[in-house]
Amino acid sequence: MESFSEFVAFNEDAGKRIDVFLTERCQGYSRKHLQQILQEGEVEINGKKAKKSDKLCSGDTVKVNLPQIPEKKFPQPVKLPLDIRYEDDEIIVVNKPQGLVVHLGNGTCEETLVDALLYHTRGKLSDVGGELRPGIVHRIDKDTSGLLLVAKTNKAHMHLAKQLEEHSVNRKYFAIAHGRFSELEGTLDTFLIRDPKNRVKKKSIAHGDAKFGELPQKRAVTHYTVMENFEKYAYLNLALETGRTHQIRVHMASINHPLVGDMLYGKGKKELGVARQMLHAGILGFEHPDSGAYMEFQSEPPTDFLEVLEKLRKANL
């Protein structure tokens, strides 16, 4: 079964390639799948067949014939490789690779981290988060890599969720961003809303911005430190005080330092050999829900991240 969807390009979409635009707007479809749909002639820009290389202008109308994808209703145990850094009867600390979705969502039909955890634990995960997100205390984006905390019991889940609510969990990320920073450290304290022009995106607004008064707003606080400043890029350490969807990505883009490779908030194209945001959850510290002992784990960024960093160091780009 197929259905036609129609989108209008906004000012911020001007200059974007059509495949990048479709990836942002068509939730549940991979970029590879959408490129195939383009090649099959199922996309039109202002009534004309679109090519993969076409770039949009503000006001363009995009029409796409999307095949219906079978949506997974519930997570299923699947044997997938897991990089487990710690496990006991209460919790798991897992190092998630980029490209793996944490849990099911709208339009998701691919295998998830939850599927792998269900197989690994034989279903012994907390159910506090509901049947779609067993064991998941917090999450990171599909194309973000790094450390995640998983609860095996409801008691552990509630204890860890309280720590997150009280901002006592130590969560630090490593990122590579565009632009040389003039301030080597700083704090971004804003509110995030759903972008009125693109429901897939979040938007950072100032406290008390009356223009968006009717929209639900969530406070977001990110602390950043520049570890290495290059000519046109910077290597960052970022600490989360709150943990909102896309928080770091939105905050960095809001100060004109979008993350390298960020297809949604950045330049919308492959950069420095990568086509995913250079963001890694590298440090995770918390109080064990049973013993009360403080535990901290560290994870080195993956190969693609390190290769970009090394490229910047050698060329001082």
Characterise the protein shown here:
This protein has helices at 18-25, 31-39, 113-121, 154-165, 247-254, 303-315; strands spanning 2-8, 43-45, 48-49, 61-67, 84-87, 91-96, 145-151, 170-178, 185-194, 202-205, 218-229, 233-240, 279-287, 294-298. Helix 1 (18-25) packs across helix 2 (31-39). The protein has three domains: 2-67, Roll (Structural Genomics Hypothetical 15.5 Kd Protein In mrcA-pckA Intergenic Region, Chain A); 71-166, Pseudouridine synthase; 173-281 and 303-315, Pseudouridine synthase, CATH 3.30.2350.10. The strands form two sheets. Strands 5, 6, 7, 8, 9, 10, 11, 12, 13 and 14 form a ten-stranded mixed β-sheet that branches. Strands 1-4-2-3 form a four-stranded antiparallel β-sheet, with no helix packed on it. With 317 residues, the chain is an alpha+beta fold. Helices cover 19% and strands 29% of the residues. The chain contains six helices and 14 strands.
- How many E-type strands? 14
For the record, the CATH architecture of the largest domain stands as 2-Layer Sandwich
Structural class comes to: alpha+beta
**Stretches with pLDDT under 50, minimum 5 residues:** none
N→C terminal distance: 48 Å
If you average the pLDDT, what whole number results? Answer: 91
Task: Please give the structural blueprint.
Blueprint: E1 2-8, H1 18-25, H2 31-39, E2 43-45, E3 48-49, E4 61-67, E5 84-87, E6 91-96, H3 113-121, E7 145-151, H4 154-165, E8 170-178, E9 185-194, E10 202-205, E11 218-229, E12 233-240, H5 247-254, E13 279-287, E14 294-298, H6 303-315
Parallel strand pairs: 7-13
Antiparallel strand pairs: 1-4, 2-3, 2-4, 5-6, 6-7, 8-12, 8-13, 9-10, 9-11, 11-12, 13-14
Helix pairs in contact: 1-2
